[in-house]
Design goal:
By secondary structure, the chain is an alpha/beta fold. 40% of the residues lie in helices and 16% in strands. It has a single domain (11-254), classed as NAD(P)-binding Rossmann-like Domain (Rossmann fold, 3-Layer(aba) Sandwich). It has seven helices and nine strands. Helix 2 (43-55) links the parallel strand 2 and strand 3. The two termini are 35 Å apart.
Length: 260
């Protein structure tokens, strides 16, 4: 008998869904049966993704979200729950980076990264988490109590990498945030875990792997290859499912052994 995970009846909110990993995460959760809420600032990209998901028979919805704006976070989550229903799964994916040596990081660079990767991720998790808590305590309606929050950290949160120091620091904060939320919310059936991807080939960095510098980096990897967006599919679906009931506060690397 084949083993399968079915997310039918669940609602998943994916931040940063307009490109890269976020786009893949949304498609993957939809294919597993979840209704997906696509959140980002780039609405036209989200509409194209919604059309693609719907063409496959999935259920997708679009909300505008700027994770650096607390009012935008509250509005997007409220809109999502009004239109689709209570959020059962959050994929906290929005993230940015810059590339420079630490001595060259400006205050503007630092704030740009931390406002999105740390502050934004926290307040998105908080807004969704408060609603999950209310349902778990019987203070709000919902067919499903508890929830799944999946924070997208990075191998950079576990391993110091040159030229992306501020990004590494921000993702280390996401790792610790995951543990704190797991400790406080776990008893309410809300499982909070983090995925730490290694280097993944996306449309944003695809050209880099063909350059001399990119090839030097690839040759440093244990198996001298770059990950593909679909390499995270199975881990994502497992953490989003009821089958991950005993997994809480886990920091799960998916980096082909790079951080070893």
């Amino acid at each position: 008998m084949a083993y399968s995970i079915d997310l039918s009846g669940r609602v998943a909110l994916v931040t940063g869904a307009s490109s890269g990993l976020g786009m893949q995460f949304a498609k993957t959760l939809s294919r597993a049966g979840a209704a997906v809420v696509l959140a980002s600032r780039r609405v036209e990209k989200l509409k194209s993704l919604r059309a693609e998901i719907e063409a496959e028979g999935g259920d997708a919805h679009v909300v505008v979200l700027d994770v650096t704006d607390l009012d935008s976070i509250k509005s997007a989550v409220a809109h999502a729950e009004t239109e689709v229903g209570s959020i059962d799964i959050l994929v906290n994916n929005s993230g940015v980076s810059t590339m420079q040596r630490v001595q060259d990081i400006s205050e503007e660079d630092f704030d740009f990264i931390f406002d999105t990767n740390v502050k934004g991720s926290f307040f998105v998790a908080q807004e969704v988490g408060k609603r999950m808590l209310a349902r778990a305590k019987g203070a709000a309606p919902g067919s499903y109590t508890g929830g799944r929050i999946i924070n997208i950290a990075s191998v950079g949160g576990l391993k110091a990498l040159p030229q992306i120091g501020a990004y590494c620091m921000s993702k280390a904060a996401v790792v610790q945030m995951t543990k704190v939320l797991a400790v406080e919310w776990g008893r309410f059936g809300i499982n909070v875990n983090a995925i730490c991807p290694g280097y993944i080939d996306t449309e944003i960095n695809h050209h880099h792997w063909e350059t001399e510098q990119g090839q030097k980096l690839v040759n440093m990897f244990p198996r001298k290859r770059v990950g593909q967006v679909q390499d995270l599919d199975a881990l994502l679906v497992m953490l989003a499912s009821a089958e991950s009931n005993f997994i809480n506060g886990a920091i799960m690397t998916a980096d082909d052994g790079f951080s070893l």
